[in-house]
Write a structure and sequence with these properties.
Blueprint lengths: L2 E4 L2 E3 L5 E7 L8 E7 L6 E7 L4 E3 L7 E6 L4 E6 L8 E8 L8 E2 L3 E5 L2
Parallel strand pairs: 2-11
Antiparallel strand pairs: 1-3, 3-8, 4-5, 4-9, 5-6, 7-8, 9-10, 9-11
């Protein structure tokens, strides 16, 4: 299975970006899909995830700013990021969780998001 992210870039504070993740198999291969991020010098953290039922979860630091969504017909997952701040600067990774309770074992190569004026 291959996961390929796109959509990162440089944006000013307060700006928006939409990340995309293309999945080489049916999205229903996975129990959940998620976006993680890793900032310089920090551990990778889960940002948002979408479960096979369509239910979504977002960490508190991005609630009301980021939205995870999917297109099941295209096997794609998205992360709409609004009102970006400097602390959102990180490499963002798309990841797949095969079954509930298992770790995220399927990862994309990552896409850089830089928020700077």
């Amino acid at each position: 299975v291959q996961l390929v992210e796109s959509g990162g870039g440089l944006v000013q504070p307060g700006g928006s970006l939409r990340l995309s993740c293309s999945i080489s198999r049916s999205i229903y291969t996975f129990y959940s899909m998620a976006w993680h991020r890793q900032a310089p010098g920090k551990e990778r953290e889960l940002v948002a995830r979408i479960i096979h039922s369509g239910e979504t979860e977002h960490v508190d630091s991005v609630k009301d700013r980021f939205t995870i969504s999917r297109d099941t017909s295209e096997n794609m997952v998205f992360l709409q990021m609004n009102n970006l701040q400097s602390e959102d600067t990180a490499v963002y990774y798309c990841a797949g969780q095969r079954d509930d309770g298992e770790p995220y074992n399927y990862w994309g190569q990552g896409t850089q998001v830089t928020v700077s004026s």
